[in-house]
Amino acid sequence: MKILGIELDSNRLCYVLASGSSPEDVTVIGSGKLQIGETREANDIRKFADEVADLVKSLAPDRIAVKAKPESGQMRAGAAALKMEAILIAQTACDVYFLSPQRLKPIEDKAELFAYLQGAWKAAVGGFDPPKKKPAAKGKPKTK
């Protein structure tokens, strides 16, 4: 199974693609980041959406696991993160799960990855055992 772990940080989407059969047997097979430009510029939003669509299509994950950000409170997600979440969900055909930081906290960092990819790594590992409730979203393939 291939899990695409994602963490949204400020105006960038950090990702780790992991493959394995269980959380104990996980291998990193890809990683990186995408950055959104101005969140109120149509061309920047379209460019980011195209990059996300290309990423998801090229990596072909079985499931996407996102390190969730709260929508309210002192540590709430900013406007850019919420827009990136929406674009991600709209650009994918597989299940998307949001995993709380508390759920991901026990997962150990991956020494071979940069610090900015650790949240995405933890989301990918946590994605092997998603919540028992229904997934947050199930996208439909885009038709052009």
Task: Name the features.
alpha/beta; 144 residues; 6 strands; 30% helix; six-stranded mixed sheet; 4 helices; Nucleotidyltransferase, domain 5
Secondary-structure map:
Elements: E1 2-9, E2 12-22, E3 25-35, H1 42-59, E4 63-67, H2 79-90, E5 95-99, H3 101-104, H4 118-126, E6 137-138
Parallel strand pairs: 1-4, 4-5
Antiparallel strand pairs: 1-2, 2-3, 5-6
What is the structure about, briefly put?
By secondary structure, the chain is an alpha/beta fold. It has helices at 42-59, 79-90, 101-104, 118-126; strands spanning 2-9, 12-22, 25-35, 63-67, 95-99, 137-138.
How would you portray this structure in words?
Helix content is 30%, strand content 29%. The chain has helices at 42-59, 79-90, 101-104, 118-126; strands at 2-9, 12-22, 25-35, 63-67, 95-99, 137-138. The mean pLDDT is 88. The protein is globular. The protein has one domain (2-138): Ribonuclease H-like superfamily/Ribonuclease H (Nucleotidyltransferase, domain 5), CATH 3.30.420. The longest helix is centred in the middle third of the chain and has 18 residues, at 42-59. It has a six-stranded mixed β-sheet with strand order 3-2-1-4-5-6. With 144 residues, the chain is α/β, with parallel strands linked by helices. Strand 2 and strand 3 form a beta hairpin. The two termini are 28 Å apart.
